[in-house]
Amino acid sequence: MVKTKIIPPAQGAYTYPLLIKSLLLSGVRYQPGQEIVYADKLRYSYKTLIERIHRLANALAAAGVKAGDTVAMLDWDSHRYLECFFAVPMIGAVLHTVNIRLSPEQVLYTMNHAEDDLVLVHDDFLPLLEQIQGELTSVKGFIQLSDDDAKPTGLPVLGEYESLLAQAPCQFDFPDFDENSVATIFYTTGTTGNPKGVYFTHRQLVLHTLNAVGAMGVYQSLPLLRSDDVYMPITPMFHVHAWGVPYVATLMGIKQVYPGRYEPNRLVRLFREEKVTFSHCVPTILQMILGCDEAAQTRFDGWKMLLGGSALTLGFASQASARGIRVHSGYGMSESCPMLCSSYLRGEELEQTTQAQLVNRIKTGMPVPMVDLKIMDASGNSVAHDGESLGEIVVRAPWLTQGYLKEPEKGAELWHSGWLHTGDLASIDPQGRVEIKDRIKDVIKTGGEWISSLDLENLISEHSLVTSVAVVGIADEQWGERPMALVVCEPGKHVDTQMLEAHLQQFVELGRINKWAIPKQFRFVAEIPKTSVGKINKKLIRESERCIE
After folding, report:
1. pTM above 0.70, yes or no
2. Would you please indicate which residues are annotated as catalytic (active-site) residues?
């Protein structure tokens, strides 16, 4: 330990804790009349947001919630969710954002594992909780969330959300406490076993928010979120706090639009009517939006879109750009809160044509400020930044989760050697730009050679009639593994195996891939399996292929 000089603070000096309540100070100062919008159902000002957060805190306290308790939330993306992002941790409790797309068995596991005390539940999820109520081991009460008239339920509800807020006092004295107190928890699913609980402290969320404000706003090549933008999330609020952007938007005091349940036509209408300029989502959700009926009559000029969660192919990026969307790549993971990298173009690159820019925009990008990132080989040695050498991305940053709830062994595995291990295989070029080549578990090993499934997906997507693609490795007696591609084509258009083999052959001749990288099989499907947060579910694809064989 290095010995440094520490001067004690003056008597009476206030040691400012990094608490979520501090994120509420600026937005209402600068823009008290700015709007929070919930679909086509409700809109109110930032001044009202602050009052509602105070009322919610009083309602939670009246329901028996105290510091250290856990409050579960099952809702669509809404103003209520935004209010809970603040009110629950600000009273010292922990907000558990329940993944509503998990199976009932997994929802039950996560709620018992988190030891939820109070549950806020939207009418649409009453049947789910009624099904598992008898097995919930720690829940003491429920608050009902209704968009219209409250639906009847057998759950012992304490009241309906809006009614409880209306009855609650409009002032609450939010206390100071240790900034390292846990603020939120959610569960991430892996390839095996039960979901793992990922948790973040007040300090981590405040630092992530402040960093994101700068990373998304100060660079000329990355003007994603500025004071005149209109923000609409298309990443579920149960997943990594909607990538942390609601905290950022609230600090900035910009207009926020919460769409409720994701329905592509409604999202397009909200984009038009509310003049949305910035959103974030996974590529598969954007594909659904661009393919809906409302999109056929809509130009998307001015819509900046941060895409992450899975690789953005050049073919799809070109399609989105042609419709007016300005695409940016983002990289992170549940355990990283999530921001680690974003696409970054230097001055001369900003002068290039749109198509030339897209080549760099779809890459993983540059580590954002305060992220210490490198690539490491299997022996723990750092790998050269030459754009060719591959290694696992490992990171350090002040907002990374410090482990998994009640699973110290898995936490120690995550933080092996003092770096957070992402499981992503990448290269870094001499300019510092990161390019993920694959998940380590998704790399295809054929005849002693490694093939990147992401590279293959990118090349196949460049075929003009391919709308989406997923590549996995399947067992092969001679080579160990060979690539197999699931392909979705434009409706009403014909594409066959011979056409795609010929399409890939041109890249063999150009030296971009080897001939053995051409997939052994192509399967043409109507839809590619997705995970609960909209990523391509390669685990399920591999399992399905084993069953087929």
Report:
1. yes
2. 188, 335, 445, 450
